[in-house]
Amino acid sequence: APSCSPVSEAATASAPAAFPHLRRGRLDTLQVNLGYRCNQSCSHCHVNAGPSRTEMMDSITLALVPAVLKARGIGTLDLTGGAPELHPGFRNLVMQARALGAAVIDRCNLTILSEPGQENLAEFLAGQGVTVVASLPCYSADNVDRQRGNGVFARSIAGLRQLNALGYGAEGSGLELDLVYNPQGPSLPPPQAALEADYRRELDAHFGIRFNRLYTITNMPIQRFAAVLHQQGQLDDYMALLRASHNPANLAQVMCRSTISVDWQGFLYDCDFNQMLGLTMPGLAGSGNSPRRHLRQLLEHDPSGEPIAVADHCFGCSAGAGSSCGGALSS
Asked: What's the CA gap between 94 and 99, in Å, rounded?
């Protein structure tokens, strides 16, 4: 069977000296990081999440989320972390968002479904009609365990089977289960459609697992992943690959044009990666003496048309077929 193989070539257009300027369109997705606590410590994690992290969104900030969804008419709440399900307010927030008619995405690492205290999590997600976007960097146990830890693949397969038993991934069920692939090293992902076909065939043949879509996501050269590349002397080469693979056709669809990222303190960023770098949103100034903009400002302010903060890491989103939290941007 084919392996989960990345690609290292791509460039069809010469890279600009600096990443092009962008402006955001209509805000349709609020991506909220509920905290950095996680039951895993993955080598590629740009959040540096793990079991020892204590940063979690407080109840006052959490209460602003449904208020902003309503005020701005935002159609999708995208919940991430860490493991967002570990936040004590996770389930109540999901129910509030669903009551407002918003779609809810749970970025789930699958092993959380078998953590103590989370035994009925899958049933809750199904009952609320939450879309599960699950990280599964390969259909091979060796590849997954190498990236995410020993035994993670087996627990991930068990989680997928649990979701399938509830109707996730079944045609007509209304319960969407999407998988996420990211390369193990400093390479671009393979073509998304071909890899999805491989996943579908292998997971069905060996485990009887079904899913809706596969998203391929490029590893961003920041935080933990960048540190590993630096130690291995590969960071400069990876940045050169991303630059050389820049595809300007992807700029119209990059996720920062329709999504705002919210950190665990309620501060706003143009994307999750900018959040991890502390690269604040330009435009409307923050309140008081703080240059950072806060979630509460979205109650009154529409950010459409504002400039987007960009830097060299943004080439990770425009390289090759493009990359976003919803997978490749072009075929």
From this structure: 9
User: What does residue 211 show for φ and ψ, rounded to 5 degrees?
Assistant: -150, 170
Residue 163 in tokens: 């979701």
Q: Note the pTM of the prediction, 2 decimals.
A: 0.90
Closest CA to 223 of 66, 44, 24, 13: 44
**DSSP count for the chain of H helices, then E strands:** 10, 10
3-state helix, strand, coil in the chain (%, to 5): 35, 15, 50
Pair of tokens at residue 214:
């596969």
Question: pLDDT for 25-57, tens place per residue?
Answer: 999 999 999 998 886 555 555 566 667 788 899
Distance CA 321, CA 97 (A): 32
- What CA–CA distances, in Å, run from 262 to 130, 209, 268? 20, 33, 5
3-state SS assignment for residue 123: helix
- Packing angle of the helix pair 152-165, 141-148 (nearest 10 deg): 110
In sequence order, what are the beta bridge partners of 157?
none
Nearest 5°: phi and psi at 132?
-100, 120
Residue 276: Cβ within 10 Å count: 22
Assigned token pair, 102:
């918003």
